[in-house]
Amino acid sequence: MREKLKPDLFTFVAGVAVERNEPLPITCNCGGVITIMPPLQEQVVVCARCESRIKILVLEGDPGYVFGSDPSGEPMLIPVQGSSKQKLDISDEERRKALEDARKRFGSTKKTTKKGRRHE
Ligand SMILES: [Zn+2]
Protein backbone atom coordinates (compact mmCIF):
# COMPACT_ATOMS: atom_id res chain seq x y z
CA MET A 1 0.00 0.00 0.00
CA ARG A 2 1.51 3.27 -0.97
CA GLU A 3 0.66 6.06 1.32
CA LYS A 4 1.46 9.51 0.12
CA LEU A 5 1.33 12.40 2.45
CA LYS A 6 -0.37 14.83 0.19
CA PRO A 7 -2.28 17.60 1.86
CA ASP A 8 -5.99 17.31 1.46
CA LEU A 9 -7.52 20.13 -0.43
CA PHE A 10 -11.03 21.34 -0.59
CA THR A 11 -12.99 23.23 -3.12
CA PHE A 12 -16.32 24.96 -3.19
CA VAL A 13 -18.90 24.15 -5.79
CA ALA A 14 -22.03 26.16 -6.49
CA GLY A 15 -25.33 24.40 -5.92
CA VAL A 16 -26.67 25.74 -9.20
CA ALA A 17 -23.92 23.90 -11.04
CA VAL A 18 -24.81 20.63 -9.38
CA GLU A 19 -28.48 21.12 -10.18
CA ARG A 20 -27.64 21.64 -13.83
CA ASN A 21 -26.89 17.93 -13.99
CA GLU A 22 -24.05 18.42 -16.39
CA PRO A 23 -20.47 17.29 -16.04
CA LEU A 24 -18.68 19.83 -13.92
CA PRO A 25 -14.98 20.48 -14.21
CA ILE A 26 -13.21 21.04 -10.91
CA THR A 27 -9.84 22.71 -11.09
CA CYS A 28 -7.19 21.53 -8.69
CA ASN A 29 -4.57 23.82 -7.19
CA CYS A 30 -2.01 22.21 -9.49
CA GLY A 31 -4.04 23.16 -12.54
CA GLY A 32 -5.30 19.67 -13.15
CA VAL A 33 -8.97 19.33 -13.97
CA ILE A 34 -11.20 16.62 -12.60
CA THR A 35 -14.63 16.32 -14.13
CA ILE A 36 -17.35 15.30 -11.75
CA MET A 37 -20.81 14.19 -12.66
CA PRO A 38 -23.85 15.30 -10.70
CA PRO A 39 -25.56 14.08 -8.67
CA LEU A 40 -22.43 14.05 -6.58
CA GLN A 41 -21.89 10.61 -5.26
CA GLU A 42 -18.47 11.22 -3.95
CA GLN A 43 -17.54 14.14 -1.83
CA VAL A 44 -13.89 13.53 -2.36
CA VAL A 45 -12.19 13.31 -5.72
CA VAL A 46 -8.57 12.59 -6.43
CA CYS A 47 -6.61 14.72 -8.84
CA ALA A 48 -5.07 12.55 -11.53
CA ARG A 49 -2.20 14.93 -11.92
CA CYS A 50 -0.91 15.57 -8.41
CA GLU A 51 -2.89 12.90 -6.52
CA SER A 52 -4.28 15.38 -4.04
CA ARG A 53 -7.53 14.44 -2.45
CA ILE A 54 -10.02 17.20 -3.00
CA LYS A 55 -13.05 17.47 -0.82
CA ILE A 56 -16.03 19.01 -2.53
CA LEU A 57 -18.16 21.37 -0.52
CA VAL A 58 -21.39 22.28 -2.22
CA LEU A 59 -22.76 25.69 -1.41
CA GLU A 60 -26.34 26.56 -2.11
CA GLY A 61 -27.19 28.80 -5.01
CA ASP A 62 -24.75 30.82 -7.04
CA PRO A 63 -22.41 32.39 -4.50
CA GLY A 64 -19.59 33.44 -6.78
CA TYR A 65 -16.93 33.75 -4.12
CA VAL A 66 -16.52 32.80 -0.52
CA PHE A 67 -14.12 34.24 1.99
CA GLY A 68 -11.17 32.33 3.21
CA SER A 69 -7.82 33.26 4.56
CA ASP A 70 -4.34 32.65 3.33
CA PRO A 71 -1.69 31.09 5.59
CA SER A 72 -0.80 34.49 7.02
CA GLY A 73 -4.40 35.08 8.04
CA GLU A 74 -5.14 37.67 5.41
CA PRO A 75 -8.62 37.34 3.97
CA MET A 76 -8.85 36.13 0.43
CA LEU A 77 -11.60 35.38 -2.01
CA ILE A 78 -12.04 31.79 -3.02
CA PRO A 79 -13.93 31.26 -6.25
CA VAL A 80 -16.83 28.85 -6.04
CA GLN A 81 -16.51 26.55 -8.99
CA GLY A 82 -19.53 26.35 -11.21
CA SER A 83 -20.76 29.79 -10.24
CA SER A 84 -22.13 31.92 -13.03
CA LYS A 85 -19.73 34.02 -15.06
CA GLN A 86 -21.22 37.30 -13.91
CA LYS A 87 -20.71 36.30 -10.30
CA LEU A 88 -17.13 35.25 -10.84
CA ASP A 89 -16.21 38.09 -13.13
CA ILE A 90 -15.65 40.85 -10.63
CA SER A 91 -13.47 43.88 -11.07
CA ASP A 92 -10.36 44.58 -9.02
CA GLU A 93 -12.33 47.29 -7.28
CA GLU A 94 -15.09 44.91 -6.27
CA ARG A 95 -12.52 42.40 -5.12
CA ARG A 96 -10.78 45.02 -3.04
CA LYS A 97 -14.05 46.12 -1.47
CA ALA A 98 -15.07 42.57 -0.68
CA LEU A 99 -11.76 41.93 1.01
CA GLU A 100 -12.04 45.14 2.96
CA ASP A 101 -15.46 44.05 4.20
CA ALA A 102 -14.05 40.68 5.11
CA ARG A 103 -11.31 42.30 7.15
CA LYS A 104 -13.87 44.37 8.98
CA ARG A 105 -16.04 41.38 9.68
CA PHE A 106 -13.45 38.82 10.58
CA GLY A 107 -10.45 40.85 11.52
CA SER A 108 -10.59 41.21 15.26
CA THR A 109 -6.89 41.75 15.80
CA LYS A 110 -6.40 44.74 13.56
CA LYS A 111 -8.21 47.99 13.98
CA THR A 112 -10.28 48.45 10.88
CA THR A 113 -12.93 50.74 12.23
CA LYS A 114 -11.67 53.81 10.49
CA LYS A 115 -14.54 56.05 9.59
CA GLY A 116 -14.77 57.84 6.32
CA ARG A 117 -13.92 56.76 2.87
CA ARG A 118 -10.97 57.52 0.78
CA HIS A 119 -11.82 59.76 -2.10
CA GLU A 120 -10.15 58.79 -5.28
ZN1 LIG B 1 -3.84 18.40 -8.66
TL;DR of this structure?
The protein is an alpha+beta fold.
Describe the structure.
- The protein is α+β, with helices and mostly antiparallel strands and about 120 residues long.
- It has one domain (about 10-105).
- The chain has helices at about 15-20, 85-90, 90-105; strands at about 10-15, 25, 35, 45, 55-60, 65-70, 75-80.
- The strands form three sheets. It has a three-stranded mixed β-sheet with strand order 1-5-4. Strands 2-3 form a two-stranded antiparallel ribbon.
- The mean pLDDT is about 85.
- Zinc ion binds next to loops.
Q: Which helices and strands appear, and what pairs or packs with what?
A:
Blueprint: E1 9-14, H1 15-19, E2 24-27, E3 33-36, E4 44-46, E5 53-59, E6 65-69, E7 75-79, H2 85-88, H3 92-106
The structure holds zinc ion.
Shape: globular
- Helix proportion of residues, in percent? 10-25%
Bound molecules: zinc ion
Rg from alpha-carbon coordinates: 17 Å
Domains counted in the coordinates: how many? 1
What percent strand? Answer: 25-35%
* Distance between the ends: 60 Å
Biggest beta-sheet profile: 3 strands, mixed
* Element string (H = helix, E = strand): EHEEEEEEHH
Task: Describe the oligomeric state of these chains in a short phrase.
Answer: single chain
Please describe the structure with a list of short key phrases separated by commas or semicolons.
single chain; 120 residues; alpha+beta; 3-stranded mixed beta sheet; two-stranded antiparallel ribbon; 7 strands; 20% helix; 28% strand; globular; binds zinc ion
